[in-house]
Amino acid sequence: MFRGQMRWIYIAMPIFFFWFFGQIDKLGISVIQTDPEFLNSLGLTGPDKNAKIGFMTFIFTVAYAFSNLFWGFIIDKLGARKTAIMGLSVWTLTMILGAYATSYEMFLVSRVILGIGEGMMIPVSSKFIANWFNRRELGRAQASWLAGNYLGPALGAIILSAVIASMHWQAAFYALACFNLLINIPMFVFLTRETPEQHPGIHKDELAYIRQSNSSEKVQAKPSFAQDHRYWIVWIGMLMASFLFFGLSIWLPTYLVQGKQFARETMTAITSLSWLFALGFVVACGFLSDKTKRPALLATILFGLCTISLTVAIFTPSAMLAGLCLGLAMGTQGGVFHLSNLFIVKYSTPETAGRAAGLMGFTNILGGFSSYIMGWLRDISGGDFGPSIIMLIAASALGFVAYLFTLKKEAEEIRQSRADAEEYIPKDALA
Fold first, then answer.
1. How many CA atoms lie within 13 A of 308 on its CB side?
2. Contact (CB, 8 A) for 32 and 26
């Protein structure tokens, strides 16, 4: 039944769960930090508690961004499979360390180690997909981790809230460790191999398809991505998207509980819905970018929608509408993140794509910094979220303005592409 499609089971499925549980490990802290017992256990009760809460994400993202440098070297030496197992083992240990943390400083150490462990997620996934899938199905293969990227936090918010409500915050970390031990690590050990040639479950016909090349494809020379000003516009846009996404995703549950006095059940529902918004925008942008060939226009629209949503959130008297608007704003940045990955391919070559992606990945550092700034602004404004949201509106508006400078060139490329297509239409076809 699955003959010829086993790569989707052996590789795409482990990568999906890799990201599904990895994102819960990474972003589950946004739910856990709403628990008063967690805050009291770590001594997060002083006048600077919100800045300290935000710093937990900032220090994680710094470790996450810089660890990409050495993980790339390790993957080249050991391969994606061994690297994934190694990284997952680190995650598991950090979850246990987080559960045993009795001080804020000890918990920070666990977040730094988690950032180092998770820094290999993108290069591992990219290496597996490059080795195991035909060039014409790379988009669908990439969707395997994009789906887990957003479904994980959507369902994770529900799972972690239920665990904390029925037991305690430490149990949430033990549960995350068990997910790795019982699901992720066994999948990479028993299902994956470095290449399809090494896997006994791959039929020779499927291997031939994976290695098949499309001889009709023409490779056009591209200038270095660093010489294309549009790459740097996208880089600024990704910087703003990261700033918005981390700030909103980390602080949304706290905003709903402390800022709008929602019950934990309502907070969980809105948080989960926000991640589903992000998944919806990813799917929609994937379809519309292929259909319209206007990814820059789509990114501009998303930043505009984000700005409007944040503005409505700060002015509306309805607590429910404010919460949903913040969730919608977070969702739009999921779409921008997906489009940014398309731009990396568009503005680079296979030889420079790694460097282009690595440089884009460093925007995560400023993204984590946004969580710290939002906490600091809350502290100096007596717990008010207003100044933080105004800051996010400014960041979203800047992203909108940046992408405006890409629209003219993109429109010209579309017109040129259509003119070239008409030029090659046979004359008898027009008769």
1. 7
2. no
